[in-house]
């Protein structure tokens, strides 16, 4: 091993150590470059209008496939995973209205950005001047692909990243930088012949293994879609009013999920006591107070009321 190789190895070891110190569960590194395999897949997905009304998914096609167009001179993509699996879950009785587990606590964008900012500061303190940018759903970055290339897991048939140690309830973030580092190799695909996610999807959004029609996903209908929800999917939402966890809940790999250690992801105060009646009668004042720091703000009060009405139409 050359001196140069040792330097790259030590730098990478330092970055991963600091990532864990900052609360991340996993950290991997891959070489920045053009995602040749993903290019035709993305183009085909967009051509089939699987992005629905999410027009932004078709923007910056070239940047989405090459991080060097986002950071000049980029050489490495540092990917991190932060577990959000809850210690305390909301009731899941047959008649209860449900929200995705990722929305139990504070908005993950702010939590991850702060942790990534601390990590980047530590890198600069140790190594010196580094040209880099932090990404948490804030630019056209194919985060699951980069996490997989960095050895953090594989993209499952439900299109979520799966990690053999802790399943799929993770947020993903990246630092794209101009540092040469030691790169990790991708893992294998361990979905095997399992089709539980495909079989369980209430709206048949997983059209084939590894392909999700985003325009049919309950998360899309309840969060991204701004107009009225199509009548032909009424009765198929299984009481989900913000997001959906069905494909993850049925995945055998999530039997390894462990409660997260991030205080910001704990249940919002008062949310644990919410009944279906509380959801149905929620006022804008209560919405603003309970979900002040929550991802639910994204759908806004009117959107949440629309979702509740769609799942539980007034009698």
Can you describe this structure?
There is one protein chain. The protein has 315 residues and is of the alpha+beta class. It has two domains: 3-87 and 106-177, no CATH class; 196-311, no CATH class. The protein is built from eleven helices and ten strands. The chain has helices spanning 3-21, 38-47, 61-65, 108-127, 143-149, 196-200, 218-224, 246-249, 276-280, 284-290, 300-311, and strands spanning 26-31, 76-83, 98-99, 132-135, 154-155, 161-162, 170-177, 206-208, 211-212, 240-242. The strands form four sheets. It has a four-stranded antiparallel sheet with strand order 1-2-7-4, with helices on both faces. A two-stranded parallel sheet has the order 3-10. Helix 1 runs antiparallel to helix 4 (108-127). The mean pLDDT is 93. Monomer. TRNA binds at residue 226. [4Fe-4S] cluster 1 binds at residues 191, 194, 197, 251. Cob(II)alamin binds at residues 64, 137, 161, 172, 219, 244-245. This is Epoxyqueuosine reductase.
